[in-house]
User: Which sequence fits this backbone?
């Protein structure tokens, strides 16, 4: 039997540190986002989600609920674990979590190269392409 994938809200400060470490690996090291932009002072206002493969943290995301709209942010899976469907599982978890909170809208600033991935998960493009941390993004809204 394979190793179990678990996706859930973080439960303690140690898990918060683990997801910050994942974000630094993916966004700061891999994508050259300035650390001051990645660690933006919004973490204390967010709901944090961790992806565990067995006991190993391999991914994360955060949700900020602003005016009853859920903004999905910092969605990431460590490079060596991509291509296994874990990102899709994570986004599906986030959608269900937000729908359970009865928010009026779920949206994100998706990296442009991932727009088809999010389209397959029922997000639609909204507005024009813009740059964030020097990376092309587009706002996408869950239909």
Assistant:
């Amino acid at each position: 039997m394979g190793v179990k994938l678990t996706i859930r809200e973080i439960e303690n400060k140690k898990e918060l540190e683990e997801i910050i470490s994942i974000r630094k690996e993916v966004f700061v090291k891999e994508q050259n986002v300035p650390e001051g932009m990645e660690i933006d002072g919004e973490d204390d206002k967010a709901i944090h989600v961790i992806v565990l493969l067995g006991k190993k943290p391999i991914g994360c995301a955060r949700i900020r609920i602003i005016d009853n709209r859920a903004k999905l942010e910092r969605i990431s899976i460590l490079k060596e674990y991509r291509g296994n469907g874990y990102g899709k599982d994570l986004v599906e978890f986030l959608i269900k979590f937000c729908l359970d909170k009865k928010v009026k809208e779920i949206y994100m600033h998706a990296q442009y190269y991932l727009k088809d991935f999010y389209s397959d998960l029922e997000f639609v493009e909204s507005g024009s392409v813009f740059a964030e941390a020097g990376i092309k993004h587009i706002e996408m809204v869950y239909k």
The chain is about 30% helix and 40% strand.
